[in-house]
Each structure stands twice: as C-alpha cells, then as structure tokens.
Predict the 3D structure of the following.
Amino acid sequence: MVDLLSDSKQELLLGNEAITRGLFEAGVKFASTYPGTPSSEVGNLLEEIADKAGMYFEFSSNEKTAMEVSAAAASSGVRSFVFMKHVGLNVAADPLMTLTYAGVRAGMLVMSADDPSAHSSQNEQDNRYYATLALMPMVEPSNPQEAKDFIKEAYEISEKLGLPLLYRTTTRVNHARSVVKFGPLKTDTPALGHFEKDDPHFVNIPAFAVQNRVRLLEKNKLALQLSEESPLNRIEGSGNIGIITSGVAYCYVKEFVSDVSILKLGFTNPVPEKKIADFIRGKRFVIVAEELEPYLEDQVLRICAQNQLNVRVYGKRDGTLPREWEYSPDTMQRLRVLVKVKEPAVPMNKTQMQLPGRPPSLCAGCPHRGIYAATKKAVGKTPVVYCSDIGCYTLGVQPPFRTADFIICMGGGAGAAGGFAQATDQKPIAFIGDSTFFHAGVQPLTSALFNHHNIVMVILDNRTTAMTGHQPNPGTGRHFGGIDTDAVDIEGVVKGLGVQFVRTVDPYDVTDCVKVMKDAIDFDGVAVVISKCPCPLLLKKEKRLEKKVCVVNQDDCISCFTCVRMIACPALIKKGEKVEVDPNQCIGCGMCRNVCPKKCIEVRE
Amino acid sequence: MKYSVQIVGVGGQGVLLASMVLGTAAMRAGYDVMMSEVHGMAQRGGSVRSTLRFGDDVYSPLEATGAADLIMSFEPVETVRALPLGNRKSAVIMNLDPVLPGNVAAGFETYPEIGDLIKEVKKENDNVITIEATRIAIEAGKAVAANAVMIGAVAAVKSFPLDRELLKEVLLEKVPPKAKDLNAKAFDMGYDAMSKQ
C-alpha cells in the first residue's frame, strides 16, 4: 500500500487514495462516515492511518450520525470531513439542511460519491441538487489529481463562507487511478476545539432560524463572488463553439473533442453566472456536457435568458446527450454532427455464441446461503413477501434463492415489512444485515412492535460490514485508532425493545434453521431470528479461517442434487450425474453436508 | 503516443494487481496514466474489467469501444465477451484456464468448449495469442503465479511500449518478498511462451 503520509513526489493513486492524501494536505483533524461504494476506500484508509496523522476518525452507525459528529467538530473550530455514497446523503439530509443555517466555525466538507450507471447502487440520483437545496457551496473534481488538490481549495472556500461545502465526486473519479503529485502536509490546524455558545446561530428555534436564513442567503451572494473569481472555473482553448462541462465528463470532452473552447467548472454551486454569460456571448452555439441531470444546463439556459443571449444550447433538454447512465468516450460520438470528434474505431463484433452469465453472487461458504436455503424450505407454499436490504444479501435475488422481492434502501425492507403485513395477506420476511440493523433497522423494528405487525425479521449477522470491504460496525466493537469498545449485542438490543420471539441460529446448521424459521413464521407478532456466523472473506483476510474442505463420498451419493439445489455453493460442481467439490473454493463449512439426505459429504481437516 | 489496455477476467484472478503493475511501469516510463477499476458489488465473483490508458495527453479513464490496443484476458469466456472492446488489429492475450460461473457449476448453464471460444476470437481478430497461464505457473512453482505469467506475456507483445525489465522490476516490488523468485521465473516463462507464438 502507498504511504499516504510520506513526502513522496508522486504516486499512482486511486481517486479515493488521492482524496485521503488531500485531507492531510488540508489539515483535516476530524472525519466520519458510514461506508458506501464508491466512497468506501477512504474509510478503510483512515481506519489504518488517521491516528498517525493526528486525526480522529470514526465509522458512525449511519450517515446522519456521521454528519452530526462532523458538524459538531466544525462548529467547535476543528476542520472536519464527512463522506458517504450518494444515497447516504439522503439519510444525512435532515441535519444538513439546517446545518447550513447554523454555519460552521472551521472548514467542513461533505463528500457525496455519486454512482452514475449504479455500479454498486440502487439508483443514479444526482446529488448536485442537494447543494442548491441546502444553499451550500459545491466543488466537483474531474480526476484523482484534482480530487486531492481541490480539497484544500474547498476548505478555504468553506471557511471564507462559514458554511459546509458539498464535495461531489462520481465513481469514475473515486475509482479512477492516475499519477498524483503530492503537496506539503498541513500541520498547523487544531485537533481540539472549543464550542462557544452562540444561540442565534446554533439554536435553530423559529425566531433564530428565519434570521439565519437571511444570513445564509447573504453568504450565498458572497459564494457567487468567490465562484466568479475561482481558479477552479477555467476556460481552455478558443473558438466560437463552446462546451461547458464539469466532473469526469470534462475528461471525455478534453480528449475526444477538438477545436472547441471549454469552460471547465469545478466550483459548481453557485455557478459563476457572469463568467458563463461572458463565455457564451458571441459563441455560435454552446454544448453542456455533464453526467446525469441537466443541472448545469438548466442554469446555463436561465443565464442566457437573464442576459438576453440568443445562443443555441445543446445538451440533455434537446436530446443531444443522454440523461441516463455514466458518460464515456463513446458518448462524445453523439456530438459528431456539431463538433469535431475523434474517429471511432471499428469494434470486433459482439459474439453470437451462447455465453454463460457471470453475475456477482454470494461467495462459497457464505452463511447467507444457509439461512436463505432454510427460509425457502420453511416457507414452503406459504404466501410471503421477501423484503430485503442493501448489502451482500441483496445477492439473494438470484436463483435458486430468489429471496429478495422488494429492495429500496437501507432499513427499507424492515419498514416495508410492516406495510405488507397490514396491506396484504402475505407474510413479510425482512432480511437485514448486522451493520444495516444498526444503521436503519432498529427504528422499523420498534415501529413493528408498537403497531403489532406480523413480521419476521432475519438479521444476517456476519460480524462485519462485508459488501463495502469489511468495516467494523457497532455489532463488532471498535478496535482501531487507539479506541477499544465492546460489541453491542444484537440479541440484547432486540430483547430490550421487547420482542418476544428471539432466536439466534447457526446458518451452517440448515436443518436447525428450518425448524426455527417455521416457528418464526407461525408466530403471531414480531419474530426476530439472528443468523450469526462470520463472513468467510473476513476470516480469510484476517487469517482466521481454519482450512477445511468438503469431500463427496461418491459411492454413497445418490445423485439427488439436493446440495446443489438448496445451497448452490460455487464450490459444488455438477459433473454429469456426479457432484464434486472444488477444493480451491470450498472452505469446508459443511452446509452441503448438513442438507445431504445420505450424509455422504464429509468435512476434512 | 497513446496506448490502451483492457484487462478482463473474474474477481479474484488478479486483474487489479496486473493493472497496478502495468500502470506503475507506465508512470515510471514518464507517461501520463489514467486507469479505471471496478470495486464493490462487481467483485463478488462477477466479470471484472480494468482499463489502463497511458501515453501523452491522456485524460480519460475509460477507452472508446473498439479502441483497445491490447486485450489482456485472464479467462476464455471473458475474452469472447470482451471482443467489442478491441478491433481486428488489437493484440489479444487469451488465458485458456476457465473459471466456472456459479450457474455452470450448479448445472443450470453450460460452459462452451475452449476450442470453440478460441475459434470465435480468431474469427474476429488476427493477433490472438493463447496461453495456459496456470499450467505454466505450476511449472514455475505454484498456480498463484499465473498473474506473473500473464504480465510476462504482455511484455512480449510486439507493439507494447513498455520495457520488459521495467515490467519485471515493478512486478517484483508488488509481490511478497518470499514470492519474488517464483514470480520472476513465472514472468520469464510467460514472456518466452508468448515469444514462441
């Protein structure tokens, strides 16, 4: 791993590594997050090195809490950084909307890592609108070098305005990798602050809030002035055709379109109105190239109207460029009729061969396989709705499990379960992860108890936040950065709320899980089943996995394929009328042996 | 000069390590480098792709369809799936070791014959070179060095602009000290296997 605290001149950095380095170059002393791709690596890095850099860092239980702890630090004079994926900002939106009213005393950045094309997400929302909604400044880098450099600039903007700043990235910035030149580390910022009482700012009762709004609007006027003067908004090239662009879209324009003048915007709320008007004036026409929503384009159209500029604007509103999915060099070909675009290559033909699919799937020995297999068996023909959630267990959507009928957001399955219980005659079964339970699962469980919803909640406690790269969560306790805490006991929490039916099961014992799930489904009221077993990937990473392997005794095997049908473990390979185990993938969990009617699978040390 | 490589395979095969080695070598050679990687959900046993572009005035982290100079593929089915990334003239390195998708293992889908997959690539491309990276790695000492075999093979691609010794040096920096000899040997064997074709 690259040493992000070194005085190295340049390194080949992932966008998220560059951002992390940027924090140290900006003297940030407080950071918080809830993990979410494409922002996750920043948290994993800070878990390792924040302490060494004199920075406090935490994984909060959700994005809202992460926003609040960082808000407190910045309000006390400590530079803070809160980061999350785009949908995480929905969770944190409540504190953010009023935090801008209160303002901050030291710089605070809110990084929203958006995911056009939804590589690892449930939607493609464009979070730039949060900047206009919360009336906060926004900065958008285009590549890893800018992702690092703009952090420093952004903190200066945040402090000049006394406002948190939205630092908006996308997957192809966070997960791009390029040569990044390092700058000096900033060491003169305080790690310890002091909160000065100031009710008119920090106590947003109605009488103060209305005044704060007036002050916030004034700050936005100053922000506009900063944006007009900012070097983050720059013009490249000349000519009478203009392209206005931001984020990674700039990279595609820069390399694949020629003979145009580019207005490259990095400070994108407020947009520099005068600079844009001056850029457009005298142009034959203008193209706005941005991913997702016509955020800049609509403002360009408004600026044209306000300045009586009769210049044609091409973009999403007229259908020239797409509004869905991330951009790429191919997207630039849509501009061919307007500008000079690099000749496309003649690609090899897409094959007509029938190729097997390769969707992401649950790992070999994944404990989720066991509890899903058991649930299916216990359910039988009972009409159910499988409410699922955000995490590895989302992969239960695939056959043979198909245990995900409804997925909207974190905690959303548990909440929806209550609605299905009341509005349908189907039994809702809500799957949720351990980290997700602490993130947004306790509240819907409480509500289900309160309203006597007939639901089963299955907490898939794999002792980590697996999908995003194995971060700790309240259920594991914290053991980094010089702080050690006890794990919060999920069973204790559930019982403490007053749930009457609580069972903890071992998902590798599928037979036992079937019995427990049957009882849970029959229970009148809220039933909670905790499926507790550590993620094998985590055990491998921590070198705690005991090496075992399953072997099929071919003489006794009756080729019923129950193991393949129920568990569908990638280590079980059907070869003609036989089942074999791939010893490279198998972890020897024994789930297949457990379901084998002939018990002809053996687990060997 | 600009050169682009599309590295394809399956999560866990070492696509990311290979792209790091090639990218770092390009940086050392003084080129602009832009790469894009797949993280998160896509890594759970799914198809994985990493794009590496280097040369002068490189800005874009993604390559245009059909424009790859080299397709470096760790897996036969993934090679065929990746064909539209390159064109008739692209160099193609095709590892012949299959990784069976879950649905194939479970008997729901079938894996095509390797020979048919090779034919399919040859139909579209004049420069495909096949390699049995795992077999060569086992010969070198251990199956895990298949990655080094593949990187050695890339060094032997005629139009590839980075120096063989530089690639080897960077590779050896990125593997654990204990595995240096193994990887050096695997790299050389990959280079030789490729040069013979």
User: Anything to note?
Assistant: The longest strand of chain A covers residues 108-114. Residues 234-341 of chain A form a domain with the Rossmann fold fold (CATH 3.40.50.920).
